[in-house]
Amino acid sequence: MKILIPVKRVEDPECKIRIGPDETGILQEGLKFKLNPFDEIAVEEGLRLVAKHSGEVVVVSLGGKEVHEQLRHALAMGAARAIWINHTQALDQMSIAQALAKVVAAEKPDLVLMGKQAIDDDQNQVGQYLAEYAQMPQATFASKQDTLDSEAEKNKQPGVLLSADGASVVVMREVDGGLLQVECALPAVVTVDLRLNQPRYASLPGIMKAKSKPIAEFSCAALGVDTSNHLKIQKLVKPAQRKAGVLVPDVASLVDKLRNEAKVL
Questions:
Q1: pLDDT (average), residues 115-119
Q2: φ, ψ for residue 2 (rounded to 5)?
Q3: Are 60 and 8 in contact (CB under 8 A)?
Q4: Above 80 in pLDDT, residue 261?
Q5: Between the CA of residue 63 and those of 31, 60, 97, 105, what are the distances in Å?
């Protein structure tokens, strides 16, 4: 089977994020970048699926040449090849999904796996838009299947399961009330959640092999994608700082503050 995995370059959350002077973006100087953690989980899941059923994992990313670092990381993990959509300007989620839909149409994957959201903007939209544009069924927030006997087995086996005939995929997804099992006919789009698996570290042989694996280049113009933005950022603001806590001498004082100051009672 062929599994296509969109991946995104995001700011390392360990870095200090600073808002730019125009208040519509963040300052890039001094920031470190990494592969979006949810996308890394998707790559790991794709590798587990092809190890069990054979096939290849293809990763795709959109951005400037700097995204090669994240593509090479996915290749070092074990992906077979990569696709780079060369576009340096900001795009909204609909345009990104349209570009990915063009790649899906060209590659014809059996399954599209991707992170449920990127940790930089937390929009959680591209997977759903992609399923619509590509006219595929979708299952979102794929979590760990809870049917294996031991934790060791869970760490080896894919959480996204194929049916016996290979015509559908079974996903355990997280919902507000617990877990919900969903089955989709293939080809399908599946977005993955945080607890699906633990991504592997890229080995030294994998890193060396990644240097020679192919990265095909496309542009939005060549793919016929409308790059006009439907979304405009008006202003970014820092989160409000939390106030220091207050010690109270007794329960009566606590209840008084909750009722008269916090207004929660």
A1: 90
A2: -110, 130
A3: no
A4: yes
A5: 17, 10, 13, 20
Give yes or no for residue 215 having a pLDDT over 80.
yes
Residues 6+ apart with CB under 8 A from 226: 95, 98
pLDDT digit string (tens) for 29-68?
778 889 999 999 999 999 999 999 899 999 999 998 999 9
Q: Which uninterrupted H or E stretch holds 153?
A: helix 151-156
- Residues 6 or more apart from 9 whose CB is under 8 A from it? 33, 34, 35, 36, 61, 63, 66, 67, 69, 70
Q: Which tens digits make up the pLDDT trace of 132-148?
A: 999 999 999 988 865 54
Residue type at position 94: M
End-to-end Cα separation, the chain, in angstroms: 57
How many angstroms from the chain centroid is the CA of residue 163? Answer: 24
Q: Which residue do the tokens 């345009």 mark?
A: 95
CA 33 to CA 64: how far, in whole Å? 13
Q: Rounded to whole angstroms, how far apart are CA atoms 16 and 10?
A: 13
24 C-beta neighbours (distance < 10 Å), count: 13
In 3D space, the residue among 216, 186, 195, 144 whose CA is nearest the CA of residue 53 turns out to be 186
Q: Concatenate the DSSP letters of all residues of 195-259 into one string.
A: TS--PPPPPHHHHHHHTTS-EEEEEHHHHT-----S-------PPPPPPPP---SSHHHHHHHHH
Q: Which token pair is 207?
A: 């890193």
Q: Which amino acid is at 128?
A: Q
- Joined together, the tokens standing for residue 233 give 């950022």
Q: Which two tokens stand for residue 7?
A: 């991946």
Position 153 pLDDT exceeds 60:
no
Residues near 116 by Cβ (< 8 Å), separated by ≥ 6?
38, 124, 127, 140, 141, 191, 192, 193
Q: Which amino acid is at 149?
A: D
Collect all residues with Cβ–Cβ distance below 8 Å to 22 and sequence separation of at least 6: none
